[in-house]
Amino acid sequence: MCAAVYVLSTVTGYVLTSALLMKCPNLLHRRKREPFLSKHISHRGGAGENLENTMAAFKHAVDLGTDMLELDCHLTKDEQVVVSHDASLLRASGINAHISDMTYAELPPYLCKLGVTFQRECICEGGEDKRIPLLKDVFEAFPHTPVNIDIKVNDDRLIKKVSEMVVNYDRENLTVWGNASNTIVNKCYTENPRIPVLFSLFRVLQLLGLFYTGLLPFVPLKEQFLEIPMPSIITKIKGPDRLTRSHRLIAWLADILLMRKTLFQHLTARGIQVYIWVLNDEEDFQRAFDLGATGVMTDFPTRLKEFLDLNGISKPR
């Protein structure tokens, strides 16, 4: 009997303490300093309105008032850091070669038309700018705009060069970097812990485990940005008729587990921003902000800006 009472009181105390710290995490953790706040994030510069990852796309998004540019980086044969999503040039340039096997001068331009990954049956037709830019071009053109850098490959040279460039352009407080790979994120953090990092896929799964067991409020977190997809959008990308029953079930379950307002509020209270990607219509914009996301990543920056303006969602301070 005494043992049962002891166990019950211990469990009750743990649950109550966890619930208290979930709502008031600053009782245990110092709130992280937020170097910048972003509601409006342009995915690949706005891949639905201009050719992805081009200077034209970035300029359009910045002129529109985006809070952050999201882009991807690779390293060329002559060790230039270029802005491109794919390691291969086949999809974007029609050339069966890899960026790492060519010098920057040898890189071909983008094709005139590119499919928009997160918008079903959507093709973006570009203007005159089809050049694959250098990361330094972006830093020089937009010195005050935060940039979200996806380090696409596990390459120590790439990580080091990006870090050096961030430091040289005085952008440690205007940059977040990382990848879904935990190995890459750990290397980024080791190379320069002053640049905020994203949660890797492994760490997202770990985060969910901590959240659902009630341990999250007790655990320190080195990351400052949680970037996660909204799983329900898969039906819009693929079309419900193209998904099997098991795929729909997995998407539904993932959505239930990931899209948790309590989790987002807890992280935000700790100074960790929550970005949901890649959302391209008003319904999903609304759901993301209703859930407590601090920012939305989109292929259509004009749509998101109009939504924010129409709904009176204030710009970050």
UniProtKB/TrEMBL annotation:
Domain of life: Eukaryota
Reaction(s) the record says it catalyses: N,1-di-(9Z-octadecenoyl)-sn-glycero-3-phosphoethanolamine + H2O = N-(9Z-octadecenoyl) ethanolamine + 1-(9Z-octadecenoyl)-sn-glycero-3-phosphate + H(+); N-(5Z,8Z,11Z,14Z-eicosatetraenoyl)-1-(9Z-octadecenoyl)-sn-glycero-3-phosphoethanolamine + H2O = N-(5Z,8Z,11Z,14Z-eicosatetraenoyl)-ethanolamine + 1-(9Z-octadecenoyl)-sn-glycero-3-phosphate + H(+); 1-O-hexadecyl-sn-glycero-3-phosphocholine + H2O = 1-O-hexadecyl-sn-glycero-3-phosphate + choline + H(+); 1-O-(1Z-octadecenyl)-sn-glycero-3-phospho-N-hexadecanoyl-ethanolamine + H2O = 1-O-(1Z-octadecenyl)-sn-glycero-3-phosphate + N-hexadecanoylethanolamine + H(+)
SUPFAM superfamilies tied to this protein: PLC-like phosphodiesterases (SSF51695)
GO biological process terms, semicolon-separated: glycerophospholipid catabolic process; N-acylethanolamine metabolic process
Keyword flag Kinase: no
Protein family (similarity comment): Belongs to the glycerophosphoryl diester phosphodiesterase family.
Name listed for the protein in its UniProt record: GP-PDE domain-containing protein
Species the sequence originates in: Champsocephalus esox
